Predict the 3D structure of the following.
Amino acid sequence: MRKKIKMILDKEQIKKILPHREPFLLADTATLSQDGMQAQTSFYADPEMGIFKGHFPDEPVLPGAYIIEAMAQCAGIALLAGVCPSDQKPYLSSVSRMRFIRPVRPKDTLICRASALEPGGAVQSGPDIYEFTVSAQVNALQAAKGVITITLR
C-alpha cells in the first residue's frame, strides 16, 4: 500500500534539515510519507566525484560506505522532517544486517528508502535513538539493504 505524499524536498530544503554539505550531502531530493515514518531520497552519482578517481579507477564504483551514508541521510531526513522534528543533529550510530547486492556506478541515480521500525522509531533505551530499515536501488534493482540506528545529539 502506497503512502500519500506529505512533502517533496529539493536540495536547498534538505540543507535546512541535515547538517551535511557538499561534497558529503548525498541527497538531491527527498519525499516524505504522510505519516512521517518513511522517506525516499535520490542521489545522482556524478562521474566527476573525486571518489571515482581512486575507487577502482578502471571500473569505478561508489564505495559501500557512501551508500550506507546516503541511506543514513535518508533516515535522518525522515527523522528530523517527520518522526521527530528536532534542533539536534542526526549521527549514524550503528549498522546491522547490511548487504551490498550490486555496484553503484558513475551516472547512476541511487534511490534510498528509510522506514522507522516502530511507531515513533524508538527501539532502544534512550529517547534520542531511532532504528530504520533502509534500502538502496539503482534502475529499480536492489543495490543494498540493512538496518541503521540514528542517534540525535
In short: The radius of gyration is 15 Å. Helices lie at 11-15, 51-54, 64-83.
